[in-house]
Amino acid sequence: MKAIVNPSFELSSTSRKWAYAFLIAQLLFLVLVCFLPQSVYPQLKGSETPGIVHIGRLVFLPLPFNALIQLGKIPNISDLTVILLQNISNVFLIYPLVLALLFLFKEWRSTKKVVWYGFLISLTIELTQLLLDFFFDFNRVFETDDLITNTLGAYLAYLTYQKLKALHQRTIIKE
User: Which of 50, 57, 63, 101 has the fewest beta carbons closer than 10 A?
Assistant: First the structure.
């Protein structure tokens, strides 16, 4: 059986093809999750996150760590749960994408680059959502916390890559 990665922890040619296919699938997933109008998703009736700022039909949540700062203004435990789950899901939103990019492209393999690229991916998503709201009223929200949580997810993908590489190196040494 052919190895997925070679001794230097680079993907085999077959594995690279699968990684590219995964990358394309992940990009399609991001488009669906991030750029469809909010009206296609189920909404909680009568709940709005505290700290929301409306400028015309553009919606912003500019305060970093808003859920923690506004904790006392969240009306009930179900709203709090939804807000916390949204933040947790945002940590892992671009995680698989970044992990695939780390396996595919050597130039991504530094902490500084992963954090920077992760932030830029997140900023691109947020700005695209603003444009969609401006032109088509998709009811999306530009959230500062999304920038933070998505960037954290990119960094966690980098740590995962580093851990997998270290485990691989230990396995190669033992053989």
Answer: 57
d(CA 126, CA 49): 17
Beta strand pairing call for 141-143 and 58-61? parallel
Q: How far apart are CA 32 and CA 11, in angstroms?
A: 28
CB 94 within 8 A of CB 154: yes
Q: Which of 112, 117, 136 is nearest to 35 (CA)?
A: 136
Structure tokens at 76: 């009930």
Instruction: For residue range 28-59, list pLDDT tens digits in order.
Output: 999 999 998 876 555 545 556 678 899 998 98
What is the identity of the amino acid at 111?
Answer: T
> To 5 degrees, how large is the angle CA 44–CA 46–CA 52?
90
**Nearest to 110, CA basis, from 162, 170, 147, 163:** 162
Find tokens 């966690």 and name the residue: 156
Chain segment 125-145, per-residue pLDDT in tens: 999 999 999 999 888 889 999
Tokens standing for residue 62 = 């500019």
State the pTM of this model. Answer: 0.86
